[in-house]
Amino acid sequence: MSRVTNEPKIKNKVIVAVREQLEHRALWLYLLRREALQKGMDPKEFGRDAIHSCGLYQGNNLSEKAGTKSLRGLKKTLFTKPAQWVFEMDVLKSTDDALDIDFHYCPLVKAWQKMGCSDEEIAELCDIAMCGDRGIAESFGGHLELLSTIAEGAPTCQIRFRKE
Length: 164
Known about the structure:
- It is a single chain.
- By secondary structure, the chain is an alpha+beta fold.
- The protein contains six helices and four strands.
- The protein has helices at residues 13-38, 43-66, 71-78, 81-87, 107-114, 119-139; strands at 89-94, 98-103, 142-148, 157-163.
- A four-stranded antiparallel sheet has the order 1-2-4-3, covered by helices on one side.
- The radius of gyration is 16 Å and the shape is globular.
- 32% of the residues are buried.
């Protein structure tokens, strides 16, 4: 039996539609991983770097949009109210040097659950996907700390952005 619990509380039709788009992105990652494995490649060898590059690109765009490298700017541009609803987030702290967020739901994990992934596959896919967030943190002059993840069976993803 799976140790991963991931059920949304917010069921608004618009939020569900946005989640479905994120699930589609997660499906791409799953299928890329599966294809790589079938061809004898290690998806971790290229997946992490590719997703990290995407995070750097996104983070640079977000910091440009925010006009700052402050983590407050990251919160303002990426972790908006709609994003908070989609991931059922609690923003616990938002300063120039620290951004603490707890996620209570993850549409990416939901997609992998729908695909029948094992707990181990879900954790691996999550780790690859989080390389994007690591890249975003880096582009803001910081790093990302993951205290817990839904993908590993925790009730929340405890994500902490910190300035260097």
